[in-house]
From TrEMBL:
Pfam families noted in UniProt: Palm_thioest
GO molecular function: palmitoyl-(protein) hydrolase activity
Family affiliation: Belongs to the palmitoyl-protein thioesterase family.
Protein name listed in UniProt: Palmitoyl-protein thioesterase 1
Keyword annotations of the record: Disulfide bond, Glycoprotein, Hydrolase, Signal
Domain of life: Eukaryota
Enzyme Commission code(s) on record: 3.1.2.22
Enzyme class, broadest EC rank: hydrolase
Matches recorded under Gene3D superfamilies: alpha/beta hydrolase (3.40.50.1820)
One biological process term in Gene Ontology: receptor-mediated endocytosis
Gene Ontology cellular-component annotations: lysosome
Native organism taxonomy: Eukaryota, Metazoa, Ecdysozoa, Nematoda, Enoplea
Length: 228
């Protein structure tokens, strides 16, 4: 059950974390945020919803900014097929498409974009794909840097380009389009187009599977360039 708990629990706690950060005396002058995997979306939601104290640099490591797919099934991350509980969880995830517990989080079906936008209350909401929340745009643009790290052999984030806001072309699940070709970017619904013009977007990649990176890469490409 720990796998299920970890996958679902944090999505209800953005506001709680915002309050904790706001009340932490050590963070009042600003802070850096590093999100690993699903934590990347969580911290981006914090950046968009809670501008004070300021998040200075946002580091997304293996995040799923457009969707999460695992082993060809839109489902539960890092849950091995030999585990009966995981198979049962996948069945529930697929059977329960767009009910509260699932689509409130990550589910993004490239074959049914309209239903995704209508029913998703987490991913589509923080991506400004439902109602345009200008506050999200303004808060995200307050970042000094937004760093997104993609793993070239990622077997958990499918397509791996999701770590850079890339996604499948509309209406199919084969061809992947980069961020700049998405409606999210072209219509600047999150302010990413403007952030790139301002030099705030940074796209890094490393040759490895999900969250497999060296200390040398992390120190040289992340710490030395964005945190020191």
């Amino acid at each position: 059950m720990d796998s299920l708990f970890f996958y679902f629990w944090f999505l209800n706690f953005v506001n709680d974390v915002c309050n904790q950060i706001a009340n932490d005396k050590h963070l009042q002058n600003g802070y850096h945020a590093i999100g690993f995997s699903q934590g990347s979306q969580f911290l981006r939601a914090v950046a968009q919803r809670c501008p004070s104290p300021p998040m200075r640099n946002y580091i997304s490591i293996g995040g799923q900014h457009q969707e999460l797919q695992f082993e060809g099934v839109f489902g539960l991350p890092r849950c091995q097929g030999s585990i009966k509980l995981c198979n049962f969880a996948r069945m529930l995830l697929n059977y329960g498409a767009y009910v509260h517990v699932i689509q409130a989080q990550y589910w993004h079906d490239p074959l049914d974009e309209n239903t995704y936008r209508d029913k998703s209350i987490f991913l589509a909401e923080i991506n400004n794909e439902k109602v345009l929340n200008q506050t999200y745009v303004e808060n995200l643009q307050k970042l000094q840097n937004m760093v997104m790290i993609k793993f070239t052999r990622d077997s958990m984030v499918v397509p791996p380009e999701s770590s850079w806001f890339g996604f499948y072309a509309p209406g199919q699940a084969i061809d992947v389009i980069p961020l700049k070709e998405t409606e999210l970017y072209k219509n600047d619904r999150l302010g990413l187009l403007q952030m790139e013009k301002d030099g705030k977007l940074h796209f890094l990649e490393t040759n490895g599977d999900h969250l497999q990176f060296t200390e040398k890469f992390f120190i040289s490409e992340v710490v030395n360039k964005f945190i020191k």
